[in-house]
Amino acid sequence: MDTSHNRGHSSTTKAAIVGFRCPSQITGLSSKFYPFPRYPHPNDCQKLFVCVNEKPRLLNCGYGSAFSLESYTCDALENVPDCKIRY
């Protein structure tokens, strides 16, 4: 089955679906993870965006974990004091 007609829209569609567009320049802690830079989700401290070939992927840190703005990695909730998730 030929799906080539969808290829030109995949980047725009992914950005629209996840609500994030990968920046053209990688700076700060995000650059530590080149070629797959990471970015915090603006509204959910348990989620992050990873850019793969300039396309955003929305990831979840998982139960009991949150995205640390200090390390740009998922860490235990008790180590991420800014995240106020309660189970």
Automatic annotation (TrEMBL):
Lineage of the species this protein comes from: Eukaryota, Metazoa, Ecdysozoa, Arthropoda, Chelicerata
PROSITE patterns: CHIT_BIND_II (PS50940)
Entry-linked SUPFAM superfamilies: Invertebrate chitin-binding proteins
Any one cellular-component term (Gene Ontology): extracellular region
UniProt cross-references to SMART domains, sorted A to Z: ChtBD2
GO terms assigned for molecular function: chitin binding
Cross-referenced Pfam families: CBM_14 (PF01607)
Natural source organism: Trichonephila inaurata madagascariensis
Name of the protein in question: Chitin-binding type-2 domain-containing protein
Name of the gene this protein is made from: X975_14150
Top-level division of the source organism's lineage: Eukaryota
Chain ranges of the Chitin-binding type-2 domain: 19-85
